[in-house]
Amino acid sequence: MRFVVIGGGCYGIYHSGQLYKAIQKGKLPASSRLIMVDRNAEPPARAKFGQSPNFTFVQADWHDYLIQFMGDPSRFDPARDGETVQIVPPPYAPHLFFEWLRAATVQALQERGWPNFQAEREGFDYPMRTPYEYIDPKNGNHFLSRAGWTCPATCIEPRVCPAVKDVRDWDLDADLRGFVAGQPVKPSVSAGPTLAQAGLANGSDSVTTALETPPPERFGGVETFKCHHFMYGIGTVPALRLYEARERLVGLARGLDETRPETRVAVGTVSHCHGVVATILLKRTF
Predict the structure, then answer these.
(1) Is the dihedral of CA 2, 40, 66, 238 positive or negative?
(2) Which residue among 85, 222, 262, 271 is the one 20 to 30 A from 234 at the CA level?
(3) Once rounded to an integer, what is the mean pLDDT over residues 16-43?
(4) Are residues 152 and 268 part of one domain?
(5) pLDDT exceeds cutoff 90 at 31
(6) Domain residues for 77?
(7) In the listed set 48, 75, 90, which residue is the last one of a domain according to the structure?
(8) CB–CB of 240/82 below 8 Å?
(9) Is residue 79 domain-shared with residue 123, that is, in the same domain?
(10) What is the pLDDT of residues 152-163, one digit of tens each?
(11) pLDDT recorded at residue 153
(12) Tens-digit pLDDT profile for residues 85-138
């Protein structure tokens, strides 16, 4: 196993420390590698774990490193590696994968001899009526949460939610995919009383709200990077999911023609309960 841990500060130390504990306890192979990526040559994580042979430290910009890592078959090859390579993102860079996907799609098209494509950032300004929503005016990132309470940073999102003491009957991945397809976010039954008491939104099953969903022709696809619990309280995204998303966008772009020169893809980085969404506008010039 290889883990690309983004950031060498306090979160990176915690994330890699938990995974290192799993290695020491035999829950992960002893040969597992932890690749820690930080802009600083001497991040705090190096002082803590620098003597362990399981760790490799890379000084690099996170975005640049992902572009290089995912574009180099000697580092990641989907046929060879499968799901043995996991990306461990920090919570304070919620849409790192969006920026990677946008840039990597154009790069892949150019490398394959198709230069007349652009991938631009757009916001996602459709209200989904989740308990928490906020659109960042600077970049259009649409932050969402199905929780109307404060979740612990290390919550593993168990089937029975500790906050409502009932089965979690919501999932932002399904919510986003359904919403873009014209289906309103389904209200949670188990969280309903808690959200109602707090006066918070809980989706909608009304026809009126359905009219607020995106027009069917606006989006050509949805991509979600699901950061789910992997082990010892740490959420990861398989590198394979990044590769697959890029290939789908490359295929979608190649399908554009003079009658349909552009399309949009909603891109979400989500857990079961929390997420952020923005839009990639794919354009072909003739």
Answers:
(1) positive
(2) 222
(3) 96
(4) yes
(5) yes
(6) 2-90
(7) 90
(8) yes
(9) no
(10) 888 899 999 999
(11) 80
(12) 999 998 877 789 999 999 999 999 999 999 999 999 999 999 999 999 999 999
b/e 170-192 (16+ beta carbons within 10 angstroms → b): bbbbebbbbbbeeebbbbbebbe
Evaluate whether residue 80 is within a structural domain: yes
Is residue 277 assigned to a domain? Answer: yes
Give dist(CA 134, CA 145) in Å, integer: 9
> Is there a contact between 114 and 122 (Cβ–Cβ < 8 Å)?
no
Q: Does 182 reside within a domain?
A: yes
- CA–CA dist 11, 96 (Å, integer): 15
What's the pLDDT at 270? Answer: 96
Q: In the Cβ-directed half-sphere of 147, how many Cα atoms lie within 13 Å?
A: 17
Name the domain count of the chain: 2
Q: Are residues 55 and 170 in the same domain?
A: no
The DSSP annotation for the chain comes to -EEEEE-SSHHHHHHHHHHHHHHHTTSS-TT-EEEEEESSSS-HHHHHHTT-TTEEEEES-HHHHHHHHHH-TTT--HHHHTTSEEEE--TT-TTHHHHHHHHHHHHHHHHTT---EEEEEE--------SEEEE-TTT--EEEES-SSPPPTT----SEETTTTEE----HHHHHHHHHTT-PPPPPSSSHHHHHHHT-------HHHHTTSPPTTTEEEEEEEE-EEEETTEEEEEHHHHHHHHHHHHHHHHT-BTTB-EEEEEEEEE-SSEEEEEEEEEEE--
31 and 173 belong to one structural domain: no
What's the pLDDT score for residue 210?
A: 56
Same domain, 14 and 126: no
58: left (phi over 0), alpha (psi -120 to 50) or beta: beta
Q: Are residues 120 and 82 in the same domain?
A: no
Q: In this structure, are 31 and 120 located in the same domain?
A: no
User: Would 247 be classed as within a structural domain?
Assistant: no
